[in-house]
Amino acid sequence: MQTTVDSSSNKEFVSTKVFTFHSWTQSESRTLTVVIPEVANAAYGMYTWPCAPVLAQYVWHNEHLLRGKTVLEIGSGTALTGVVAAKCGARVILSDSALYPDCLENCQKSCKANNLTGVDVIPLTWGIVSPPLLQLPPVHIILGSDCFYDTKDFEDVLVTVAFLMNRNVVCEFWCTYQKRSATRSIEFYLSKWSLQAKEIPVSSFCDEDFSLRMDCPGIDSVHLFIITSKKTDRPQDVSAVT
């Protein structure tokens, strides 16, 4: 990961980060480079936190699963993961809270920095059934990095996810979570909203040099989960989502 700094603003620390992702199969290896503008200020979503590159790497590693699918990223922030999904050939919709217009603007800047067109950016506040939520097409994959940062948001996130899964029962929620406390859990809310979670080992899609290449402190404490509706009769493993 490379970083350049723009010192033209004396109010905000503006930077551009370059992320490089690798994927491999028995027959080939592929590399993707993504440019992300970010701002270090009070808005959490304007900065790329460790969960985002881990989820983006999983997306790139599973490019074949996203091609041609409708993908919604919630809490997009800098939109790193959504940008990677668009590079995989998915129809991507980026979203963030209507309370943070600067984050929505930054999503648009990320698309422009990576020469992406046709990516919608919408205001979507977790837990609220708003017109933008109702107007969404059936979604195949929901992406969310570090959405379970604040315990007050846990149920709101899963309410939104459950609403979308009721529209498309085979929809999956791919999310990353940085473990900060052993006392926090979403297990109760998963059960309440008829959802289930399965952990995907990070080592199964990241190479040995990933942590060093990303240069994000705390990246080794990030976990990835696939959350689905119980109606799909898929295997369940919620014990690790803490």
UniProtKB/TrEMBL annotation:
<comment type="similarity">
    <text>Belongs to the methyltransferase superfamily. METTL23 family.</text>
</comment>
<dbReference type="InterPro" id="IPR019410">
    <property type="entry name" value="Methyltransf_16"/>
</dbReference>
<dbReference type="InterPro" id="IPR029063">
    <property type="entry name" value="SAM-dependent_MTases_sf"/>
</dbReference>
<keyword id="KW-0808">Transferase</keyword>
<dbReference type="GO" id="GO:0008168">
    <property type="term" value="F:methyltransferase activity"/>
</dbReference>
<keyword id="KW-0949">S-adenosyl-L-methionine</keyword>
<protein>
    <recommendedName>
        <fullName>Methyltransferase-like protein 23</fullName>
    </recommendedName>
</protein>
<dbReference type="GO" id="GO:0032259">
    <property type="term" value="P:methylation"/>
</dbReference>
<dbReference type="Pfam" id="PF10294">
    <property type="entry name" value="Methyltransf_16"/>
</dbReference>
<keyword id="KW-0489">Methyltransferase</keyword>
